[in-house]
Every structure is written in structure tokens, then in C-alpha cells.
Amino acid sequence: MKKVLTFVAVAAASLSLASCANSNAQKIDSLSYAIGADIGLNLSLGMKDFDLDREIVLANIDEFYKNGDVMGEEIKEVRNKMMQYQYSLLMPYMYAKRSQDMLGSDQPDTLPELPALFNEEFTREAVSAMMGKNMGAAVKGVDAEIKIKDVFRAIDDAAKIQEPVEIDSLMRMTQEQMNGVFRAHADRVRAKAEAERNLAKKENAEASAKWLSKIEKKDGVQKTESGLLYRIDREGDGAQATLDTDVVLVNYEGKTRDGKVFDSSYERGEPISFPLNGVIKGWTEGMKLVKAGGQITLWIPSELAYGENGAGSDIGPNEALEFKVELLEVNPEE
Asked: Which residue in 103, 132, 180, 226 could disulfide with 57, CB within 3.0 to 4.6 Å?
């Protein structure tokens, strides 16, 4: 358990969560209690100089946990506002506070004045509500069953703490126990993610192979030795790339096998140029199969695309892809 966390670190810290219980305490859900302790200790220790309205913070934690959407527009707006608050008020305050601490003068009148933490836009009430919503989203976003009563029980217990040395004696779990809870939960989350990814690899590989086998039977579709499928949709009459170092200018649209467009130069409103040795293998090979002025459709096996790693949120591991490409120029002039 960290002794002190800054305002900006609270959301991330509240998500590094996890389950174990103090044998001398009443029965509690250890993960939920550890989460609440993390939040509560930040309020009582890490953020005590902020003078937040505690009741507003807690009410917003509770409200967001019950009714909020961790992927919704409200929390996105809250986090955008928090970033604005961070740069406009919080960071200047923290820099000044650090300067005061470094000077350590026993004559307060000689220390630099601390800037305000609140203003007309970011009032004490507004910042307290933002903080509460963000904490509520952090709790709700945990990949585990949470007992919200134990979260608030820990927040209440942490309110009694005045100094970090009191944590182990006044909380129902020690810092060592809470750290163990966090590590155990993180291990479970990693194991679950790995299992889900391995399953996705298997399912995508099977589905992609089945999809490509159907594509291969379509009229006009040809297959190269590497397994690349292609169809010339429009013959070109211009230059043809032959080297991996050739540069091509293209318009294109990329789709997953279920038809979702994940990339499109058409949507961006302008073509793109690139050297053939700077793209996936399916493109490097496929762009040498059509002449400038022509159009080609490529169906690319995953091993010629992004393989087991996938790419971004749209392209999973072992995912075959489809590209419709217009080759505009080969080695366009700069």
C-alpha cells in the first residue's frame, strides 16, 4: 500500500487492486476492503491538503458505482475535466508545495505562497464530485465481484488514520496483507487475459482458415505460393512494382473477415504512399501483382498480416484480413 498518492495517480492506484483478510477482523471481502483502504488512505493522507468535501466524494463514489458506465461519455468528460484541473491548478499548487517542503523554513512568512486549489470553474464541490466519480469508476471497473459495503467500511476506517505508521494497527488488514491481495488479483487478471487470448488465437485461426477457403473458391480469385489470395478487379496500364524498395501511392480500405472497416484512406480523404518493405508481407507481395491505374482485392492470411499479436483493438491474433487497393502510382515523385 502506498503511503501517499497524488490526485492524478488516484485512479490508476485504485485499479491496481486485489483478496486475504486480517484474521483478527470481522469477516470482510479482502479485495473490496483493500480497494476501499486505497481510496480512503489517499483521502486521509495523500490528499488531506486538498480539503475536499468528503461527503460529496463518497456520495459520488456510491452513485457512480451503482449507476455509472465505465465506458460512458460522463466518465470521459469527467476525466477530461480532471486533466484540465491538473494542469491549471493542481500542478502549480504541487510545485509550490514542493518548494515549501524543500525550504523547510521555520518562519512561515518567508515561504512562497501556495496558489489556490479551487476557482470559479473548479470549485471545491465540483472537484470533490469529479474525484468521487473517478473513484467510483475505478471501483466499478475492477474485474472481480466487489462488495461495496466493504469498500466503504475501509474508507471509514481510513478516516481515523492521521499518520502512515497507524495503518497496520487501525485498519482491519495490514499493508502487507493488502499488498498480497493486490498481487493475487493482478495474477488472476493476467491469467484470465492470457487464457482469453489463447482461446482467441485458436478460434481466429480456425475461423480465418474457413473464411479463406470459401474466398478461394470465388470466381477470379487466385492464390500465390505463400497463401495470399487476390483478385484483379481492374487492370491497370501503368508501371508495376518489382522491388521491395519500390514506393507506391495507393487508396485502400481494410476490413476484418466480418466486414468491419478498420482502416481507410478514403475516409481520411487522401491517398498514402509507402515503401513496400515497410508494410505487412501480404501488401509487399500483393502490390507487385497489379499495375498502376489498376485495382486489386487482397485476402491476407494472418501469417502475412499481423500474426499472433494482432494490431490494435480491431485486429485480433491470427486474424485474416481483406484489403481493396487502388494502385495510383509506383515510385511517385516527391
From this structure: 132
Longest dimension (CA), the chain: 87
DSSP per-residue codes, 272-287: EEEEGGGS-HHHHHHT
Among all chains, which residue has been given the C-alpha cell 498514402?
A: 272
Express each pLDDT in 120-165 by its tens digit. Answer: 999 999 999 999 999 999 999 999 999 999 999 999 999 999 999 9
Separation of alpha carbons 192 and 307, rounded Å: 21
- Cβ–Cβ under 8 Å, residues 300 and 286: yes
Q: CB-based contacts of 50: which residues, under 8 Å, 6+ apart? A: 7, 117, 127
Query: In terms of residue numbers, what domain contains 269?
Result: 218-330
Q: What is the CATH number of the domain that holds 296?
A: 3.10.50.40
Q: Facing residues of 261 across strands?
A: 255
d(CA 159, CA 267): 53
Identify the sign of the CA torsion 198, 202, 203, 208.
positive
Q: Which stretches of 42-72 are DSSP H helices?
A: 54-67
Phi-psi sector, 51: left (phi>0), alpha (psi -120 to 50), beta: left
Q: Please state the separation of Cα 116 from the chain's center in Å.
A: 32
Domain count across the chain: 2
Q: Is residue 210 part of a domain?
A: no
The candidate with the shortest Cα–Cα distance to 178, out of 298, 11, 287, 41, is 41
Distance of alpha carbon 7 from its chain centroid, rounded? Answer: 19
- Asked if residue 186 and residue 224 are part of one domain, the reply reads no
Q: How far apart are CA 99 and CA 263, in angstroms?
A: 49
Q: Dihedrals φ, ψ of 330, to 5°? A: -110, 130
Q: How far apart are CA 92 and CA 105, in angstroms?
A: 20
Side chain identity, residue 321: L
pLDDT digits (tens, 9 = 90+) for 198-256: 999 999 999 999 999 999 999 999 999 999 999 999 999 999 999 999 999 999 999 99
